[in-house]
Write a structure and sequence with these properties.
By secondary structure, this protein is mostly helical. It has 14 helices and no strands.
Length: 286
């Protein structure tokens, strides 16, 4: 239930970005403004749970923060220039890019679960991009794809920082991503109304900060494979909220491509879970 609740809160990003008050911000600065101040608001909430004894410096924190900042900026900006469905589905190709990195850089052996996810992700990518090739959404789709690549960078660097405190890492990447963007948006954000500022603050705390805390707590009780499967609720619900609240339609090609991407991730998770259960059963005394 906690993982489901975290996924539900994460899935509201499109509802916030597409809301009329935030959509009224000029398109040229809307993405950077929302990306900057939502993570700063989340960082304030997350920082309350960081214990000083867990704060320490490591060089790998630099690429970790940079890739997270890129993912945040590209994803939010993409959502202002394409459909919420395309933005979230293309971001979820991150697993495929991380898999390719592990093969060609770390020389890890290709396994069946990740290979399935890779092929489905590439097929889904082709459907979404081909369907919007000649539309106004094409540039936004490219940004969303870039956010998936950056998200892969977050996954890779997070794996290398797995011994660090999770609350410290999450608070740091949010604060760092916001501070990197702040000089670029400080002047253009001066004209925001109190309602817009309030929505951005709620956006950051409710959609970014709170779900991370809930999810981190849930991982103490739920196997990672099960949690990964439940987080697929986010890309499914995201475009549904936007359609129900703001009436944004979604092309059939986007649903087909998104289904391939999410289906591949679901199959990957189920295969990994089966492999893990088989390994545990073999290790048990007979």
């Amino acid at each position: 239930m906690m993982v489901g609740l975290a996924s539900l809160l994460w899935s509201t990003s499109g509802a916030f970005v597409k809301s009329p008050p935030l959509a009224a911000i000029p398109e040229g600065s809307r993405g950077p403004i929302l990306a900057c101040f939502r993570v700063l608001a989340a960082a304030v909430a997350l920082g309350l749970f960081v214990k000083p004894r867990n704060v320490r410096w490591r060089p790998m924190l630099v690429p970790f923060v940079i890739t997270f900042a890129g993912m945040n900026l590209l994803f939010v900006t993409a959502m202002t220039r394409t459909t919420a469905a395309a933005a979230i589905f293309l971001q979820y190709t991150s697993t495929a890019w991380a898999f390719l990195f592990s093969i060609f850089v770390w020389r890890e052996r290709a396994d069946l679960p990740n290979l399935v996810a890779l092929l489905c992700a590439l097929g889904g990518l082709g459907w979404i991009v081909a369907g919007d090739w000649n539309t106004a959404y094409f540039a936004g789709n490219c940004l969303a794809l870039g956010s998936g690549v950056c998200y892969a960078g977050v996954i890779i660097t997070l794996k290398m920082l797995r011994d660090e405190d999770s609350a410290w890492l999450v608070a740091l990447c949010h604060a760092g991503a916001g501070l990197l963007l702040l000089p670029l948006v400080a002047a253009s954000s001066l004209g925001l109304s109190p309602l817009q500022w309030s929505l951005i603050a709620v956006f950051g705390v409710v959609q970014m900060g709170l779900p991370y805390l809930i999810f981190a707590s849930a991982l103490r009780r739920v196997p990672i494979q099960d949690a990964a499967l439940l987080t697929l609720l986010e890309p499914i619900l995201n475009p549904l909220w936007v359609y129900c609240l703001w009436g944004e339609p979604v092309e059939l090609s986007t649903w087909v491509g998104g289904g391939l991407i999410l289906g591949g991730l679901a199959v990957r998770t189920l295969l990994l879970r089966r492999t893990e259960r088989r390994r545990v059963s073999l290790e048990m005394p007979q």
